[in-house]
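To whoever picks this up:

The parser on our side crashed when reading a file containing two proteins. I've narrowed it down to the boundary between the first structure block and the second sequence. Both blocks are reproduced below exactly, byte for byte. First block:
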Amino acid sequence: MHDYYENSEWKLILDRLSAIREQEDFSSANVEFIRSHLQSHDERVRGGAALAAEGCLFEPYILDLVLDIAENDENEAIRKAAIQSLGQVIYEGVLQDFEDDEGATTDLEFYEEWDELQAGTLKEEYLRSKNLLFSILQNEFDDRSVREAALNAVSDLGFLPDVEEWIEDFMESEYQSSKLVAIHAMGKYPQSWEEELATSLLPGTPKPLLMEAISSSYSSQSAKLAKCIEQLLNTDDPDILSYALLTLANINLTEGLGEILQSFSLHADEKVRKAARDALENFSKQSFSDYLQDELGFEE
C-alpha cells in the first residue's frame, strides 16, 4: 500500500505541474507549488518542476533554483529541462534589447563569483542566465546533449559572433542531433544562413535534417531557398510535402505559387491536402495585403 501511495503521489504532482504549464496559471499558490518541487528528491518531480518553472522564472528564488539545477544536477535530463526553461530568459532579454555594449560580451569574468550577483533586475537575471548557458557551451567536456540544449536556449542570440561559431561547430558534428539543433538555431536568423540552409535542402539530406531545414527557411524571404524547396515537391513523402508547401506560401516568392498550392489541395494524402489548404489561406492573405499596400496605398 505504501509503495502504491508513493507511486500515485508523484504522478499526481506531475499532472498538476503539467496542468499549470499548459494553462499558464501561475497564481501565487501554483508558483509556490513549483518552487517547492524544484527541490524535490524525486528526479521525476524535479524535472517536471524545472519545465513548469519556465512560466514564472522571475518570481522570487525560482531562477536561483533553476540555474542551480541547470549547472549542478546529477541527472542530465533534468539539467536539460532547466536549460530549456532558461531559454525564456534569453528570449525576454532579446525583446528588452539587453544586448548593449555590456550585455553582448561572452566574457565570463564579468561575474567571477556567482554569489556576488544578487537577484534583482531583469537585466541581471538575463546576464546570469546567459553567462551560465555560455559557460556550458564553452565546456567541451560537458555532456553533448546538455550542450545541445544550451545552444537551443541561446538561439535567439544567433546574431552574436560567438553563437554563430557554436552553430557552425555543431553543424560540423558527426551527430545528427547536434546538426538538428544547429539548423534549428539558423531558423532564428535565416538570412544569415542562406548558403548553409540551401545545402541542407537537397533531396538526399536525411529526413529529420531536411524537415528542420525547411522549417528554418520559413521566415527567410529568400528566393534562393524557395527555389530549393520547390525542387522537393517531387517527393512522395507527405511530411516533407506538408512542410514545403507551408514554407513556400510564407516565403511567397515562387512563380505560379497559387496554382501549385491549388494542385496539392487535391493530393491523395489528407495531411498534404490540409497543408495545401492552410498554405493557400496564408498565400491569399499575403496577396490581399500586398494589394492593399501596393495598389491602394494602405499601410500594413
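<<boundary where parser fails>>
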Amino acid sequence: MANESDFQKCKEARKAEIDKYYQTVLLTLGFKDLLEAKKGNCSFVSAEPRFFVENTRQELKPDMVLQYEPSRGVLCETKTSLPFPDVYLLSSLDQIEKYSKEVTGWNTPDRRVANHDILFLCHSMDSDRVVGKIQEWLEDGTLKVTKKLSICEWSMIISPKTGKDVILIRHRLGTTDCEELNQMLRANVVIDTQAISVKYEKCKFTRKEPPVEYLMQEFWVNVFSELNVKLEDFETSLTDILKIAYEYYIPWSNIEGEYSQVRQSWVSKALNAFAEIGLAEEISVNGSKYRILRTKKLPKDILDYFIEARCRLLTRQPQKTFTTDEQKAESQRSLEEFGVNEK
C-alpha cells in the first residue's frame, strides 16, 4: 500500500494539471474577448483549428489564430511551462519553426493569407530564460524562424485592487506587422478571469484532452443536470451524453468546419472514472449505457472530491465515505449553489 505522502503528491499533481489546463482556456478566451471588444482590424479567428504546411500533409494546431487586413494573419503558441535543460527547451520550441512555413487553414476563400507572423506567449516564470535563449538561438542559427516573431509573458495573479484572479500579459521582445496588436500588447493586458469565466461559461475545452477530473466536474454539474433535472439516479448512454455535450459546450467560433469542444473518447473516459469511484454503474456489455448515481452524497468541493477519490485508487488509499447529517447537509448546500435542488 502506498503511503500518505504518495497520496498527497498525487493530489497536488492532479490539481496542478487541472489549473494549467483551465488557465490556458482563460488566457485564450481573454485574448478572444479583448480583440472582439476592440472591433478593430485584428480579429480572433479560432482556437486550435487544423492547419497544414502548404503542399504537405503535415498538420499544425496553433493555439490561437488571428487575422487582419489586407490578408494577413498571426499564429499564436501558448505555454504554461517549459522544460529547463536547453536540449528539451529547444525541442519545445520546434512548433515556432514550423509556424515559419507557409500554411493553409486560414478563414479565407482559398484558406491562405499573403503573409503571417508568430506570437509566442510563455509563462512569466520561464520568460527571462526563454527570451534570452531564443535571442541566442536566432542569432547563431540554432532556431530558424523566418517570420516576424513577437514574444510575451503571461501570469495569473491576485489583483491587489480587487482581490480577484487576473491574467497579466506583458510584451517582452519583437513585433508583428499588425500595429493594432503591437499597441495592445505594449500597453500590458489585464484579463479579469471571473468576468471571462461567466461570459464564456459554455466554452471550457481546448482541442487538447482535459484532465479527467475536470471533465467529471463539468459533466456532473452541467451535462447530467441537462439529462435529468432531478437529483436522482438515472440511466443514460454515451450517445446521449455526447449529444448534450455537443449542444452545451459551444465551439470557439462560427467558421465553417469548426470542431466541437468535446470528444467521444473523453466521454468514455469520464464515465469509466465515475464507475471506478462508485458514482456510475455500467449496464451494458460494451460500455455504451450507464446508471448515474446522483443520489450519492458528495462534499461541497466536487472537483476536490473527484481528485481525492481517484488518487485514493491510484495510491491504494482507503476511500472516504460521507454519511453524517452534517456532511449530507453540506452536500445539499453545494448542489443548491449549482442550481440543483433535491426536493
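After patching the parser it read the second block fine. The first strand starts at residue 43 and ends at 46. The chain has two domains: 22-199, 212-337.
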